[in-house]
Design goal:
By secondary structure, the protein is α+β, with helices and mostly antiparallel strands. Helices cover about 20% and strands about 20% of the residues. The protein is globular, with a radius of gyration of 18 Å. Bound molecules: zinc ion.
Length: about 150
Amino acid sequence: MFHRIRARREHRETQRMMNDLLQVAHLEPPVPDYPDAASTPAPDGSAGTMVDDFLPSELRMPTRDEIAGMMMRYDKPLVINGEIRQCPQCGSYRNWIVLSVRDEVWLRCRAGHETLEPGLDTAWYNRTSGPMTQRHSTFEDGLKYLGH
Ligand SMILES: [Zn+2]
């Protein structure tokens, strides 16, 4: 029981943190062909610029240190230590949103139940996800973008 209460409190803290985020990014599988965005020459006259193909900061994707949370879709069943993960509340086992917050990984089912997944960590998340392709100003925006 204590354990449950504690888990719930941590969950609330995580949720509050996610709602506080100004930048939630999510990841998608790698894009096979990058759009040819770099071919537009920068306007001349910016004297002293040493790296001329460096994008302005507003076009640059944030590095992973600059964002507080990441999210991606994971539609397949998720096997951790040989077991298929199920939502403890509704039993669904696929169509997850995987959240990476600090060093924790959370699974969110289609019905919106969020469960801390101690079997996964940021390293797993980074191995599994593709490059960041989008950033969202709110958690809800990110979810909506991912179809949840
Ligand atoms: Zn559920």
